[in-house]
Amino acid sequence: MGKFFSRYKYYLIGALVLFIALTLILIVFSSGPQRGAFNYQIF
Amino acid sequence: MQDATHNRGFFSEHLKDIVVLIALALVVYILVEQSVRVYLFGGDAFSYAKMSSIRSTGGSGNLQPSGIDGLVYELRPGLDTVFKLVPFTTNSRGLRDKEYSLKKPEGTFRVALVGGSFTMGAGVKIEDTFHSRLEERLNEEPGGLKYEFINFGVAGYTMKNKLSVLGHKVLEYGPDLVLFILDGSQFADLKTRTFTPRVEKLSFFTSYSYKLLKKIKILPGRNKSALEFVRLHLRRIFLLDNALFKIAQFSEENSIPVSIVVLDHDYQHNKLGKKIEKEVSKKGNLFFSNTLPFFRHENFVDYCIYKVDMHPNAEANRIFAEVIYRDLKNQSLLGKPDPKFTENE
Fold it and tell me: Are B223 and A27 an interchain contact pair (Cβ–Cβ within 8 Å)?
């Protein structure tokens, strides 16, 4: 296990950074509910 | 021979890296997706049943084809399910409401509500909908009259569908008042819908991170805005005039007062609300109510069921109930029914 972490530590750090960055971008920059009532996705 | 062994070793080394990389990408995606779900839906994000309940109305399995002219589809009777995170039940006649007898009980004042998804209460518990609140509030007041607000709202109903409800479903309950609700696609939708029953079985696996990705402000949007919605309706205002004519005719022929209610929480539609008021005032026998001005200083997102669905939430419904209560009282539409409106009963 330790060998795995030491071998892939940069992969793991990259994945963590990617996770945090993507989550923050999606939450901070998304623009709220779509306005205009034709977009209710009834069907 | 040595080269072949070396190549195989090189390939298997990289294969392991690729597998690790793909597995990590998958883990990152699942983590991002779950974080987004918690952001959007709170604790409900961990419930399989609740997340599966977030479906389009057409794919919810809650609808059935309707044999009534102009209606296309209606809610299935006897539903007991979850829809858009909240319990969703229908009575034996396919109304999202409690059971009401067809014959109006003595001393009861009945109000029929004809509308779309806002009226049906998509994503709102039935006790939090504006009509349940109105019914409860009025029944708590002293005066002897018992009030029944009967909800004929079905998500996705266009003006044509609502007129069909008015003509074919409402009268058998003997209402003393009709609230004709302009919600959802208000009147500009020209599409003739067809309906095939279907159920979205994989709704749990909807990618909300992808939905948010499409809504990133800095990317060019393909979706229609509130202002486009208003412009389209103003262009097709003649459709409202045709509908109002039919509603006024219904009111006159059946001696039932009808109030046209603009039920909306997006203040960007305010210009449309004013135009509708003007059109309604041209028809002498129709009443009018508009919830839009009460959302002028409010943040739209605070009044939506969740951040990717604009349907009005419980708090918006509370305001709807306040506005309609005030207007119905001011217009003297809730007192003892005027004799001229009850002589046919």
Answer: no
Contact B24 A15 (CB under 8 A): yes
Strand B86-89 relative to strand B80-83, pairing: antiparallel
Which residue, chain included where needed, has tokens 């609140």? B133
What was the ipTM of the complex prediction? 0.86
CA distance A2 to chain B (A): 15
| Amino acid at site A18 | L
Dump pLDDT digits (tens) for B144-198.
899 999 999 999 898 999 999 999 999 999 999 999 999 977 788 877 778 888 8
CA distance B116 to B157: 5
Convert the pLDDT of each residue in B4-36 to its tens digit.
555 666 666 688 889 999 999 999 999 999 999
What pTM was computed for the model? 0.89
Contact B181, B153 (CB under 8 A): yes
Rounded to whole angstroms, how far apart are CA atoms B68 and B335? 33
Dihedral over Cα of B163, B167, B168, B174: its sign: positive
- Quickly name the fold that domain B65-189+223-337 has: Rossmann fold (3.40.50)
Per-domain residue ranges of chain A: 1-28
